[in-house]
Known about the structure:
The protein is mainly beta. The chain contains one helix and seven strands, in the order αβββββββ.
Amino acid sequence: MKTINSDTELMERQYFQIYRTKLYYHFTRNLNARLIMQYNGMEDHLDMYYLIAYNFSPGSFLYIAYTERFDSEMYTNARGEEIRPAFGSSNKILQVKLSYLLQI
């Protein structure tokens, strides 16, 4: 029989607290948007991924993607108190990709 201490058990429970949802919206046949939200309970952060895709000709696409992370990292103030603020944005990334199919 195997025994697991409470710290390991707690860590294993928190490790699997990842929640994810996806939303898709098609404005037209060639233009669509996607939003993915993912919450990680172990690291206590929320990631949001936005993507707009435009197909302007067969095989050619324009992608605009934006990623943002919200977290509440704990810090210690001057009095030695541990403070955990509300979610704040920490990482932001904007990406643009153009893919064009050349017909020879």
